[in-house]
Design brief:
141 residues, alpha+beta, Aspartate Aminotransferase, domain 1, six-stranded antiparallel β-sheet, YdhG-like, DUF1801 domain-containing protein
């Protein structure tokens, strides 16, 4: 079985954000960077070539193989901002009610600009995601 493609890299996070072409998305990425550092207490690490992750955990998939992944994070994608808060969404669906203009998948929130979502609700979702991840996968560091 192949190793996961999304792994920590040595890419500088701030330099990566500066390469984001959409100026609004770049500005939003710097704001999210500040919020995630404050909420998680972790320094950012690039995972793959486009995800900014905070913290990490180990998990085993169905065949028993263990992998490492980031606990929480985001990615300033070309089409939208992706915020990885799947554990928080599943544990606290009521936090999504007041979030504002967004779409979502099982593990991500998507929005075109930070101004379209409620700051307080998003920060609570990030915190809820981290709390849920920490319960499921207690930090070892």
């Amino acid at each position: 079985m192949a190793e996961p493609k999304t792994r920590p890299t040595d890419i500088d996070v701030v330099s990566f954000i500066h390469t984001v072409e959409n100026e609004q998305r770049k500005e939003d990425a710097f704001q999210l960077l500040e919020w995630f550092i404050s909420i998680t207490g972790q320094q950012p690490v690039m995972w793959g070539d486009s995800i900014i992750g905070f913290g990490q955990y180990r998990y085993a998939n169905r065949d028993g193989r263990e992998h490492t992944f980031f606990r929480s994070g985001f990615s300033p994608r070309k089409q939208n901002m992706s915020v990885y808060v799947g554990a928080g969404m599943s544990a606290y669906p009521e936090l999504l009610d007041g979030l504002g203009k967004h779409s979502r998948s099982k593990a991500c929130l998507y929005f075109t600009k930070l101004a379209n979502v409620d700051e307080t609700a998003l920060k609570k979702l990030i915190r809820a995601d981290l709390d849920t991840m920490n319960l499921r996968y207690p930090p070892t560091d």
